[in-house]
Write a structure and sequence with these properties.
The chain is an all-alpha fold. About 65% of the residues lie in helices and about 0% in strands.
Length: about 70
């Protein structure tokens, strides 16, 4: 969802500022990338927890180090 919004924003920005105001493009891209980076950093621990709970050790089947059960 966030990536689709950023793609739409960057394409609209490129179309609007194609030849008119080129000096504003770099600061605007930097300013708008800050919230996206913060969103990614804040959501990364949730992704790690999701992968651990999905593919990690289960409470129903305890895995041990023995090869033969």
């Amino acid at each position: 969802m966030v990536s689709a919004t950023m793609i739409a924003f960057s394409s609209a920005l490129a179309l609007m500022l194609q030849d008119k105001v080129t000096w504003i493009a770099a600061p605007l891209v930097i300013a708008t990338s800050i919230p996206v980076c913060l969103f990614g950093l804040l959501q990364f621990p949730l992704l790690v927890e999701l992968v651990k709970s999905t593919y990690g050790r289960s409470i129903f089947h305890q895995q041990n180090d023995r090869l033969i059960h």
